[in-house]
Amino acid sequence: MRVARLTKSQMTKKLYIETVGCQMNVLDSELVVASLRKHDYELTDNTGDADTILFNTCSVRQHAEDKIYSALGRLKHAKQSQPHKIIGVLGCMAQKDQRLIFERAPYVDLIVGPGQLHQVPDLIKGIEAGSGQQMEVSLGRKDGSRDSIERSHESFDPLRDPAMRPTPFQAYVRIQIGCDKFCTYCIVPSVRGPEQSRPPQHILSEARQLADEGCKELILLGQTVNSYRFRDAAVASGQETRMSDLLYALHEIEGIERIKFITNYPKDMTDDLLEAVRDLPKCAKYLHVPIQSASDRILQRMKRGYTVAEYLVMMDRIREWLPDAAVTSDFIVGFCGETEEDFQLTCDLLREQRFKNSFIFKYSERPGTKGAEQYLDDVPEEVKKRRNNELLAIQNQVSEEDNQLFLGRDVQVLIEGPSKASLKLQESGRQQESGRQQVSGKGGSGKGESGQGESGPGAPANPESGSRETGNHGTGNHGIGQQDAESQQLQLTGRTMCDRIVVFDGNRRQIGQTLPVTIYDANAHTLFGTVVTQHIGPELFSLSG
Ligand code: SF4
């Protein structure tokens, strides 16, 4: 789970927010925090301190929902002893379960679907004023005309809170909400509503604002982002903006160095889009295009809308236009009726297509989907698990082999910040320090709830495991006391233009820069390198000579 960072204030109210799920949820949380900051809220990472506790939830898998209900269960006693605490459930699970959440956890005060998040500050105010439990959700897909359903799935204005971003140099930008594809396993079209593309002027003004704030990388978000199409009803000709047009316009913004977009739908991978990605230097040569299965029978049951042959034709076109692009995919194993034969087709396709990496999931039946209504979830859990591991092993082998090709090469890395290993070291240093203070009698009450540290499933993919600790070139000087923190060496992480994770030793001053790094080692998930240092010629020495 993604947990908010701590800021301190004595007068303001405290907000604890936990986010589960995809990048769309991460962005939603950013916007909720921004709107609550305007109402005198500050973040805390401690539920014990919080005046308001919010869970921004995901319904894509049962496990994600179970986690939230367990977290709510743990708050029952806190609510009894501190009834003024406001507990809220936001996002997809709120839209899907609605009043069921009040039934299962009657002490929850607030339920808000993803299309109603702009109402959160007012709803909280109402609860504070004694209005009792509040629920705001959007219309269901059969609850009205398309127009009224669309309007009930309001998206936020571009309120941003830089402190909630993955890094200050990167920002998600929503360009589309909802989905009309109705894959039979997926709950998204029900909870996020109809597919709607955002007006390009809104996207561009948000992107300019982000660039002014120092953001260098935009990650455009949509459930099927490449289906983006905005037709301006106000213009008589009904002029249409395609995804490729949007990329050309965003590319003009000064300060933006990289543009990525996720997640693509195979059937909407048009030539004009591939051409734009090829021709625009700021566009990452990276495409995430889920296939889900390589069995036509299963694809048909999933209602994905393409055959394996059609997907492969699309892959050929990607390679024609973008021979060096990194392509990643998603797979669902153990979908209803998936035989060993179907699964082997998927394994074969993965070996052939050599995706940079894949997100592999065991099928999880979601009530309310066509899949749950029409098919029996008949693949036993242990078979799903085994297939998941098998496919993962193939992907890891492919990823490792392909990453080895980078050995000795220089890559341009946008440096995001300390690596996971560095953060772990810093955290354990802090814990040791606070332990020392408590032993010496300076530790305050010492009984607050401990800091939260889980990271969210479905968070922006960062499989950089930190298993290398400080890497082969680790300097091990993390304990140096009062040295200039800016120049102190630490392990950093960043990404290449084709979205490969690179880990290397550097210093804090380099964070946010794009630097060349020479790769000396690689595993399936990570490239390890050293920053290329420029040779300064002897003529400089002559100045002091
Ligand atoms: S394209 Fe399919 S899997 Fe993706 S969000 Fe839409 S319904 Fe879900």
Q: Secondary-structure map with pairings?
A:
Layout: E1 2-3, E2 13-19, H1 23-37, E3 41-43, E4 52-57, H2 62-74, H3 76-81, E5 86-91, H4 92-97, H5 99-104, E6 110-112, H6 120-128, E7 134-136, H7 146-152, E8 170-174, E9 176-177, H8 188-192, E10 196-197, H9 200-212, E11 217-221, E12 229-231, E13 240-242, H10 243-251, E14 258-262, H11 271-279, E15 286-288, H12 296-302, H13 308-321, E16 326-333, H14 340-353, E17 358-362, H15 370-374, H16 381-404, E18 410-418, H17 420-439, E19 489-495, E20 501-507, E21 514-522, E22 526-531, H18 538-544
Parallel strand pairs: 2-3, 2-4, 4-5, 5-6, 6-7, 8-11, 11-14, 15-16, 16-17, 20-22
Antiparallel strand pairs: 1-2, 9-10, 12-13, 18-19, 18-21, 19-20, 21-22
Helix pairs in contact: 10-11, 14-16
Bound molecules: iron/sulfur cluster (SF4).
Give your account of this protein's structure.
The protein is of the alpha/beta class and 545 residues long. It has three domains: 2-147, Rossmann fold; 156-400, tm_1862 like domain (pyruvate-formate lyase- activating enzyme, Alpha-Beta Horseshoe); 405-431 and 463-473 and 485-545, Nucleic acid-binding proteins (OB fold (Dihydrolipoamide Acetyltransferase, E2P), Beta Barrel), CATH 2.40.50.140. Helix content is 35%, strand content 20%. It has 18 helices and 22 strands. It has helices at residues 23-37, 62-74, 76-81, 92-97, 99-104, 120-128, 146-152, 188-192, 200-212, 243-251, 271-279, 296-302, 308-321, 340-353, 370-374, 381-404, 420-439, 538-544; strands at residues 2-3, 13-19, 41-43, 52-57, 86-91, 110-112, 134-136, 170-174, 176-177, 196-197, 217-221, 229-231, 240-242, 258-262, 286-288, 326-333, 358-362, 410-418, 489-495, 501-507, 514-522, 526-531. Strands 1, 2, 3, 4, 5, 6 and 7 form a seven-stranded mixed sheet that branches. A five-stranded mixed barrel has the order 18-19-20-22-21. A three-stranded parallel sheet has the order 8-11-14, with helices on both faces. Helix 14 packs parallel to helix 16 (381-404). The longest helix has 24 residues, at 381-404. The termini are far apart. The structure holds iron/sulfur cluster. Iron/sulfur cluster binds at residues 179, 181-183, 186, 188-189, 223-224, 265.
